[in-house]
Amino acid sequence: MNIYSNDEKMVTISHMVCKMVNDKILLQQAIGQGIVSYGSVAKKLKPEIEKELKKEVEHYAIVAALRRYAEKMNRRLNDIKFDTSNSEINLKTNIISIDILKAKHLFEKLKNIYDVVNLENGDFLHIIYGKNIIRIITNERYKDQICNFLHFEKILSTNNRLVAISFILDMALINTPGILFQIVRRFVWENINIIDFVSIENEMNFIVAEEDAIKGYKALKKLIES
Fold this sequence. Notes:
By secondary structure, the chain is an alpha+beta fold. It has helices spanning 6-22, 25-33, 38-53, 59-78, 106-116, 143-149, 179-189, 213-225; strands spanning 88-101, 125-129, 133-139, 155-168, 196-200, 203-209. It has 8 helices and 6 strands; from the N terminus they run ααααβαββαβαββα.
C-alpha cells in the first residue's frame, strides 16, 4: 500500500528538485531565464530523483515541481532591482595578489605597505588575514617594494595580470537577501572565475584574470540595465 498522499509526494519531489537545481548553477540560470524545456529537464532529473527516493515518480510531478521552482525563484530575484543611476562599475587593471605564510613578526612588516601605497590617489590595497596565509591584493607597480619588505618571509605564490571589478550598489540594496547570488551567477553563466572577493558596505570588488575583465564588466552592465 502506498502510504504517501499526492501532496506528500509533491512536497518530497519538490524538495529534491530544489536541491538538485540549486546544485547546478548553470541549469538554475537557464531555468531562471526561461530558456529550457521543463519536460527535457524533468527527463534528465527523473532517474536521480527515483534513486534518491527509492521509488518511481511521475514525469508530470517533476515538471510541476520545476515550474513552481522557477516561479518562486523569479519572484524572489525580480524583487531585486538594480538602478543604473545608483550603481557604478569600475575596472582597476594591473592588480597583483601575493600570498604569504602567516608569521608573528610579519605584522610589523605589513605596516610598511601603507606608507607605500597611495590610497588617497585611488590606489588599490586589501590585506586579508586567513588562518595560515595572509593575502595582499594591490597595484602591480608596488610588487618590488612589497617583496622587499617581505624579504626572508615565505611567499607562497604571486598572481599577476589581475583586474579588480568594483561594483558599487545602491545603499538601499545592501541588506537585501540574494544580492550576491544574483551577481555571482552572472559570472558563472559567463564562465568567469572569481579569484577573490572583497566587499565593504555597498562596494563589492571581484578579482578576476585580465582576460575575463571585459566579460565581467559586460555581465554586470547587463544586470543593472535589465
